[in-house]
Amino acid sequence: MTFFQGSEEYTIDNKGRVVIPPYMRRSLSPDARDTFTFTRGFRKFILAYPIDQWKKIQNKLMELNPFNFENDKIITFFTMFCKEVSLDAQNRLLIPKELLSYAEISTKVLIVGKVDHIEFWNPDEFAKVYSFEPDEYAKIFEKVLGAGYYLGSNLNGNESSS
Q1: Chain segment 96-118, per-residue pLDDT in tens
Q2: Residue 111 contacts residue 24 (beta carbons within 8 Å)
Q3: 68 shares a domain with 46
Q4: What is the dihedral of CA 152, 157, 159, 161, to 10 degrees?
Q5: Listed residue (123, 91, 101) closest to 110, CA to CA
Q6: Residues 97 and 71 grouped into a single domain
Q7: Closest by Cα among 115, 101, 99 to 41
C-alpha cells in the first residue's frame, strides 16, 4: 500500500536529477514499477504520483464532463504538463526542466510525502505557503479532524494518557 510521509531537503544535480528518500521508495507499491507521473501542482510545486496512484486520478478525470468549461480546465491543467519518469539505477528521478522552472526550483528541493503522492517544492516557497502560528494550526487541525483530536484523543476517540 502506498503511503508517503515525511520530508527531506536534497540537492538537485545539474541534469535535474534528485534522489528519492529511501523510506519513500519503500512506500512504492510493486504496481508502480518505480515510475512516477509528474505534473504541475496547483501552487508553485511539482506533483509526482506513482503510476498506480496516477491511474486513480485519470479515472476521476475521465468521469468529468469535458464539455463543462471548469472541468475542461482541470483536465487540461492536470494532463498537459504530464511526464512519466522512472527511477534510474541510483534511485534518482529526472525532473522535467519545464516543471523545475515552473516551481522555481534550482539547486535545493524539499521533497514532501503527501499520502498517495510526493511533492517537490522550492524550500522558500514551501515556507511561505505552510507557515502558520501554532494556534492557527490547532484550529485547522480541529476543524479537519474533529474537536478534541488535536488535544490528546487518538483515532478510536479514547483520551491519551500523556
Answers
A1: 999 999 999 999 999 999 999 99
A2: yes
A3: yes
A4: -90
A5: 123
A6: yes
A7: 99
Identify which of 48, 45, 20 has the alpha carbon closest to the alpha carbon of residue 121.
45
Concatenated DSSP letters for 40-77? Answer: E-SSSEEEEEEHHHHHHHHHHHHHS-TTSHHHHHHHHH
Pairing of strands 7-11, 83-86: unpaired
Which residue segment(s) compose the domain that 135 sits in?
A: 129-156
Query: Is the domain of 28 the same as that of 62?
Result: yes
Question: Would you tell me how many other CB atoms lie within 10 Å of the CB of residue 35?
Answer: 17
Mean pLDDT within 58-76 = 96
Is 103 found in the same domain as 74?
yes
Q: Is residue 2 part of a domain?
A: no
In angstroms, the Cα distances linking 74 to 41, 42, 43, 110, 119 are 11, 10, 14, 25, 19
Q: Specify the DSSP class assigned to residue 106.
A: S
Same domain, 107 and 133: no
Is 125's pLDDT higher than 50? Answer: yes
Helix (H) or strand (E) segment spanning residue 156: none
**Residue 99, in any domain of the structure:** yes
- Here the CATH number for the domain that contains residue 68 is 3.40.1550.20
pTM: 0.86
